[in-house]
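Table S5 (text form). Sequence records supplied for joint modeling of the two-component complex.
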Amino acid sequence: MLGARLITPKAASLLATDPTRAAGLVAALTAAAQKLDTSNPYWAREIYGAAGLLAGELKNEAGVAAARSAIATSWESQAAGSTDPMTRLHFLQGALMAYQAIPGSGEVVQRLKGQLAEASASTAQSLPMHKFELKVPNANFDATLEKLRGFLANEQFGLLKLPLWLGLLPDWDKLNVSFDAQRKEYPLQYLFPRVSVDKDGRMQAQPADEAEREEALLLEHFAQTQQIGAMIAFRYLAALRESGEWSAAALITMLEEIDPEMAAACRSGIEAFEAEDFWTAVHVLVPQAERGFRNVAVEIDGNVHRLIGTEEVRVATLDKILEDSVFEKRFGASVVKSLRGLLTDPRGFNLRNLTAHGLLDPTRPQAPAAFVALMCVLIAVWLRAAVVAENQATAS
Amino acid sequence: MLDQLNREYTQADISRAVEVATGLEGEDSLEAVAKALWAKAEEIKDTEPRVAELLAGDVWVCELQLTTEERQASGASALVPKMTFTNGTTYPPYVREWPDTVRPYFLERAASTTLQQTRARYNDFVWIRWGVFPNASAARDAYLAIGCGNGFRAGGKAARTILELGRAIFLSQSLNLKRAETAVIIADELD
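The corresponding structure-token record, covering 587 residues in total, follows.
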């Protein structure tokens, strides 16, 4: 029944001009698929798909439902019979997508989601771990450190602008250029679609839409550069700590001067960071960064509340705050993209959501996450201070 | 690549090229026709350069590839190049890039070719490039003629048959070309 491949949406609509003949074809296709159900499930699903498409053109809802159900069952049986984690994951994905197209399959979909999460976790455990080493030449490091010291000495509240200096808020046009250059240099790693799986069963596939896929790849590039940037930043912090230019006390004192509420809210987190208790630091500082950005939103007349139903008002979450157009208008698209990439976009670093939902892995080093959390606190305090200063200047 | 075809051809050049090309037709296969045309173009490039150019252009049309409805839905032409090089050029050139100077030649080739494969190809090419409606209809007929009766047997031929019949369906359905008749022919093939 290779001819089933011929049944595209256009062909189905053409064949449906003779409903009796087309109904006969639906029956023939279904019978052919049933014969192949176990011997060649891939091909059977394709034929069921053709039968369903044709049945759809004939407004034969039962035929469409039967074809979809046969496809879903076929995927599920293959998943049940598969022992290899990656293969099982593939079949379960197919089954889930197929059942999602069948109305009233909520219960099966929920059951399969559980199995999919379990299979993802098992796949993630079975994948080999690759480590890499990054060498920064001392000469480059020393020269950059000197520049950083000069910057901190000349700027009032220089530590507050450290995130800017360390590249946490890049210009996204330039980031795009650097990403394109990387893609040209290492084209192979972008040649194949990728799926990311985590130990806790979370799985993310690349979007099918080209524009969305490009955006996802750029965000992934951003998250990776931030991860590497964080590890390099620790060397700078160590040097500054040694010379007394960076310490928990210095940071807290500075914050108390600018924003006493944030200083009080972040104190234990900053102290934990300096004590290298990064797990505690990230869990204290991420919610405080959200507080900080909410405070910024208040200053720029952003929307920090959301209406539930007709009467209840709740505090807007960080993703909603950053989505508010006033943020982009005030600080520019690059700042908002960076903050979303660091905190709320599942395709990026997504620190806020991973922390808030208990999805950080306690068995892995959390130093980069704690660093990003601390930097986000500094960014929030800096942005708010800048807005307050501007507002005061305008008022006077 | 197409620069050499972007010149005025006399009716004599065109008639001569069509005569030579038709005379070379044997096996009903685009590959065989392209091979024969290329050999002839090489042979006469010094003695009849204009005719040789037209034959070379003919080879490129034969070398275009028929593509799927799915690819067309994402913006591709029904006939696409075989290869894209790193500098962005393609082989053969995109259909949209062909100069108007060769239109009379391909109109004549579409009308006079003796083979079904080339009839489908030239008529479809003329329809896609210049939008000549009767050629779309002729292409639909030729695609049905070459695609029917193969029984979708496994192997390389099946994939080509699906493309050919798929193109006939597409032309018929989207241009309202003998829809009922096409539906019967396709249903017979699928039975």
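Note: Residues 3-190 of chain B form one domain.
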